[in-house]
Amino acid sequence: MLSRTADNLFWIARYMERAETAARLLAVGARNSLIPSSQGHRSEWDSLLRAIGTSEAFAQKYGDPVQRNIESHLFFDRDNPSSVVSCITAARENARIVRTALTTQVWDAINTAFQELRQLEREPRSELDLSRLTEWTMRLTAMMRGAIEATQLRKDGYNFLNAGYYLERADSTARLLDVKYYVLLRRLSSSAPALITISGRHCCAPCPRTGHFTGPMAVM
């Protein structure tokens, strides 16, 4: 297999996986915004942007991380290379270049996603519900994955597609862990003094400089 063919197949899968990740993060962010807290409704939009790696680009173009702007940024914004529109467009272009390396079913799945996406872009934004957009994305990416699994020969092309899927998924997971680790660490550190007051127990005390829990501390 030519290296450029392998490269195109690899990035087809990475772009489709990235589009699905963006849709899932949008769905989770919308659900979390409905959960009440002591400060009102929770907002995970800022951490969502950090997880997907576009917080600086978003701030420069949109300003405050409000839901409507984030929906546009992560779904329709062609200036954002990680948006659903950008990812599906790039995946379809890569698929067009290596059309002969894909089965008819795989090409139809990705081309259908691209054509339906163009129709969505023509609809007024006020008529597009977020749940409709995220469910559409997850359905089309699942169809693409199913077509690959059901019809693609188990040869080099199939392996490069899987490499793209799994590396993109690992990257997304690492980003989520990186963002959520520091969010949870701050919350745990702030609640540590209350935990230390448990009578007759030993617990770990947070280091004042790093916030990490350094060792056992006797409770007075």
Principal-axis shape = globular
**Class inferred from helices and paired strands:** mainly alpha
The fraction of residues assigned to DSSP E strands is 5-15%
Topology as a string of helices (H) and strands (E): HEEHHHHHHHEE
The DSSP helix count reads 8
The main sheet orders its strands as 1-2
Ends distance: 69 Å
Output mean pLDDT. 81
Count of discrete structural domains: 1
**What can be said about the biggest beta sheet?**
2 strands, antiparallel
Write the SSE topology.
Blueprint: H1 3-32, E1 36-37, E2 40-41, H2 45-52, H3 55-61, H4 67-76, H5 84-97, H6 104-122, H7 130-151, H8 156-196, E3 202-206, E4 213-218
Antiparallel strand pairs: 1-2, 3-4
Helix pairs in contact: 1-4, 1-5, 1-7, 1-8, 2-8, 5-6, 6-7
Give structural notes.
The chain is mostly helical. The chain is built from eight helices and four strands; from the N terminus they run αββαααααααββ. Strand 3 (202-206) and strand 4 (213-218) form a beta hairpin. Helix 1 runs antiparallel to helix 5, helix 1 (3-32) runs parallel beside helix 8 (156-196) and helix 2 (45-52) packs across helix 8 (156-196). The longest helix has 41 residues, at 156-196.
Give a quick rundown of the structure.
By secondary structure, the chain is mainly alpha-helical.
Label this structure with key terms.
single chain, 69% helix, 8 helices, two-stranded antiparallel sheet, globular, 220 residues, disordered C terminus, 4 strands, mainly alpha
